[in-house]
Amino acid sequence: MGRFDQEQKRALADPQGFWGEAAAAIDWDQPWDKVLDDSNPPFYRWFAGGRLNTCYNALDRHADGGRGGQAALIYDSPVTDTVRSYTYSELRDLVARFAGAMATHGVAKGDRVIIYMPMVPEAVIAMLACARLGAIHSVVFGGFAASELATRIDDATPKMILAASCGVEVNRVIPYKPLLDAAIEQAAHKPDHCIVLQRPMERAEMTAGRDLDWTEVAAAAKPHDCVSVAATDPLYILYTSGTTGEPKGIVRDNGGHAVALKWSMKAVYDIEPGEVYWAASDVGWVVGHSYIVYAPLLHGCTTILYEGKPVGTPDPGAFWRVISQHKVVTMFTAPTAFRAIRQQDPTGVHIDKYDLAHYRALFLAGERCDPDTLAWAQEKLKVPVIDHWWQTETGWSIAANCLGIEALPIKPGSPSRAVPGWDVRALDDGGHEVPRGKIGSIVCKLPLPPGSLPTLWKADARFREAYLDEFPGFYKTADAGYIDEDGYVYVMARTDDIINVAGHRLSTGAMEEVLAAHPDVAECAVIGVADSLKGQLPVGFLVVNAGVERSEAEIVADVVRMVRERIGPVAAFKTAAVAKRLPKTRSGKILRGTMRAIADGESYKTPATIDDPAILDEIAVTLRSLGYPHAS
Ligand code: COA
Ligand code: AMP
Asked: Structural domain of residue 620, as residue ranges?
């Protein structure tokens, strides 16, 4: 039996022993009573009775333990032409002082704090300062619109919001403060204070009494010590798309999270403390939480915070410039970034300009990695390219080629095998395991390993209903796929209405809610069609009310604007068409899957339950007028 098999077997046979051992790499204020508390299934708690502080483990123990002078964070921002490095001591001091400022203005353990910030060091400082106080942060991605922020404000009921005056995209400055003001206006809950970082490109209007200036409050504050919290206390809430317009508040605990992430840095990524690790994502996404902020710092690495894009900042060599300049040994990004680079630099001319001798591996996740992109990256970079699979809910990888345990052969199209701690199966609709190679619903046997979601924020019932009820004893990933004879997992598609646009998770259901709100729209459907750059793109179909006065083009322009205003530019909703009717089953269910198959040029069977098959031909004509399928 190979090392990987041994570890996988041991983690499932003896989770208490396996994770108890891994937990020794974390500094605890008080040891746990039990590694895994399974007394209240299906709710499981890791390291119950234990106490720790995540910020202490990420910063103080390194700052005071010999890494004080080592770079903890390198901020590299081609969009503002800035590179700035913070040692562990400097970052700890900045975080301690900002935690002091937050405490002065009323934030204490257990309070929620929303962070609505772009990729600036202060966003990391904000997250760690919350962790230091035992406050629960909830970062909201900058590409979301005001109403999405408002929904999160009402669900998390934050005492304070931390924001910046603006974000900087490739060719424009995006004012954040008007969005924040609009969101607070829309929300029923009002925060006591907003602390706003004024960036020089766009200064924000401040609301007297409520808004405070970041620099001023930080300068006036005294450093705050780490507050000891229970291992099972929430560290953060991260909202992710659910099947409706109501996002799900994924809860992450402190203890299990610290243990799993620290363990993953060596086991999955094969990184040693002191090395430079880079996740090119955004702090607004789970990848940013886990692998820009927490895991690399818990492991004593140098992490890179990159405020730029794979292309256009200034060219498709941007990633290689960062790797070479900061001596990055391993980077992690989404396949879409590589498709963007490849499109602009197919022969890899820009790669050859940089010294990448120290660079060891590329990890990809966030969406299915097409074998073509994998092969291109492998050939051009000449390092292992590792596809790994995970979700906001899980917080770290479910399936991966664990380079730090034993490198397994790479099978393009598969994120490899279940990581130790994860018991992954493919089930049919009746809950029985399907034979190897056959597609089923991918599920993970409970209990899930540490670091994965214990529940949804203030929504235990929704947690059960969304993830646990359909396959009792298992967590439903809502991904469909198969497992081959060697145990390799193949993740093929979502079983719900989630689509993946440029590595961003979006709900077509939420977009449909926006379209349906247009007064001239009688019915609508949004599907995710294949896109060679972004993986998928949303396309909307509208059936308009009889006798409307506005033209079809005007209504389409309206709904495109509405999705941008209500969900945000990140939805990338730019294409819609008016249809006479939508294809449905006799019971009235819209056949979105069949519409998608037509759009992607796939063969499909006309469902036996279809109400009127002729509608599919009409849809095909409409799709052709929009340029789908691309190949035909
Ligand atoms: N704040 C405000 N607006 C934002 C934003 C932010 N933080 N991030 C993106 N947007 C806007 C973009 O400017 C764009 O606006 P536009 O419609 O006016 O052009 C829109 O949202 C869509 O953004 P995106 O889908 O990212 O498209 P893009 O053309 O700007 O970039 C890629 C395409 C592939 C280069 C980019 O998506 C990328 O780097 N992806 C990497 C994937 C990634 O980081 N995934 C996270 C999980 S690992
Ligand atoms: P998110 O919660 O944004 O990380 O999105 C999670 C979803 O992205 C998963 O449920 C999958 O549908 C998809 N996904 C993430 N990583 C992969 C991967 N390596 N292969 C296939 N799909 C992936």
From this structure: 502-625
Contact between 342 and 317 (Cβ < 8 Å): no
Output the pLDDT for position 632.
40
pLDDT in tens, 452-476: 999 999 999 999 999 999 999 999 9
Alpha-carbon distances, residue 279 vs 328, 353, 540 (angstroms) = 10, 22, 33
d(CA 139, ligand 2 centre) in Å: 19
Which of 116, 165, 169, 574 has the most ligand 1 atoms within 8 A of CB, as the residue to mutate?
Answer: 169
Place of tokens 């002729």: 614
Rg (CA), the chain: 24
Is-contact 440 480, C-beta < 8 A? yes
Q: Is residue 72 assigned to a domain? A: no
The span from the CA of 158 to the CA of 105, in Å, is: 13
> From the CB of 415, is ligand 2 less than 6 Å away?
yes
pLDDT tens for 472-514 read 999 999 999 999 999 999 999 999 999 999 999 999 999 999 9
Q: Indicate whether 101 belongs to any domain.
A: no
Q: Is residue 531 part of a domain?
A: yes
Torsion of CA 43, 49, 55, 61, to 10 degrees: -140
User: E strands within 377-439?
Assistant: 385-387, 424-427
Q: Looking at the domain assignment, is residue 195 inside a domain? A: no
pLDDT band of residue 631 (cuts 50, 70, 90) is: low
Look at the chain and report how many structural domains it folds into: 1
Domain CATH number, residue 564 = 3.30.300.30
